[in-house]
């Protein structure tokens, strides 16, 4: 029902935009950004070859390695330890107003000449939250009882997620503000797309690697099987 409703909303709104929105033909840009796909890619390669852009791309490709495991694996580990998926999904609901308000607040601090200062300040706190998430996973089985989990456990999880959202959005808004600030206005769209794509890639590949490494790095013990390490899926099944 949820997917059907929002699918209908998307279809209606995009159709209305296509039918009702008209281009303003009176205003013509002083210079065309690009003439076609080939020119666009030539432009992208010329941008990325610039030393400052290349250095920045390397930085944002590796900046999120430190908290990739905490971001990608924590929720899965909590479910593995017995926290119901629907309870974790419900905890995401109070995060929605926070996610709307946070960019408005943070944008005041990223509007100045050095938007990346907010990024730098948020990073150590986000790294510390990774340790806090690790503690949360360790603590989860210790507070579990027959009826599930106590209310105070969910309060701690909710506060942890809220703090995580603050650091996440501080870094996200700061990097977006910086990308907008350094992009050449004449080729703003192409410039912004390149930097934002690299930024997104910098968040996705560490999470993928973290998820891939979960099984090899997880230490398991088999009850009742003395000579089995349970290091592989087959061994665990045996």
Automatic annotation (TrEMBL):
GO MF term list: acetyl-CoA transmembrane transporter activity
Transmembrane stretches, start-end: 6-22, 43-67, 87-106, 118-139, 151-175
Entry GO terms, CC: membrane
Biological process (GO), any one: acetyl-CoA transmembrane transport
Family annotation (Gene3D superfamilies): MFS general substrate transporter like domains
Keywords from the named record: Membrane, Transmembrane, Transmembrane helix
Domain of life, source organism: Eukaryota
Keyword Transmembrane: yes
UniProt topology in membrane: Multi-pass membrane protein
Coarse class of the protein's main subcellular location: membrane
Protein's cellular compartments: Membrane
Entry protein name: ACATN protein
Organism whose genome encodes this protein: Chionis minor
């Amino acid at each position: 029902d949820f997917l059907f409703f929002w699918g209908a909303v998307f279809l209606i709104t995009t159709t209305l935009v296509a039918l009702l929105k008209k281009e303003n033909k009176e205003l013509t840009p002083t210079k065309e950004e690009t003439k076609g796909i080939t020119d666009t890619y030539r432009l992208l390669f010329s941008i990325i070859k610039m030393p400052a852009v290349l250095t920045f791309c390397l930085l944002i490709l590796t900046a999120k390695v430190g908290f990739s495991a905490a971001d990608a694996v924590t929720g899965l580990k909590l479910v593995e330890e017995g926290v119901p998926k629907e309870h974790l999904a419900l905890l995401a609901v109070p995060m929605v107003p926070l996610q709307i308000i946070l960019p408005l607040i943070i944008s005041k601090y990223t509007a100045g000449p050095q938007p990346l200062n907010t990024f730098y300040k948020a990073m150590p706190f986000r790294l510390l939250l990774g340790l806090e998430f690790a503690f949360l996973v360790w603590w989860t089985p210790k507070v579990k009882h027959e009826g599930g989990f106590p209310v105070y456990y969910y309060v701690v999880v909710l506060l942890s997620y809220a703090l995580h959202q603050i650091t996440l959005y501080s870094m996200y808004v700061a990097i977006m503000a910086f990308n907008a600030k350094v992009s050449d206005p004449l080729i703003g769209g192409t410039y912004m797309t390149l930097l934002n794509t690299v930024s997104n890639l910098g968040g996705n590949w560490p999470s993928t690697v973290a998820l891939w490494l979960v099984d090899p790095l997880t230490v398991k013990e088999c009850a009742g099987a003395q000579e089995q390490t349970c290091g592989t899926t087959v061994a665990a099944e045996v």
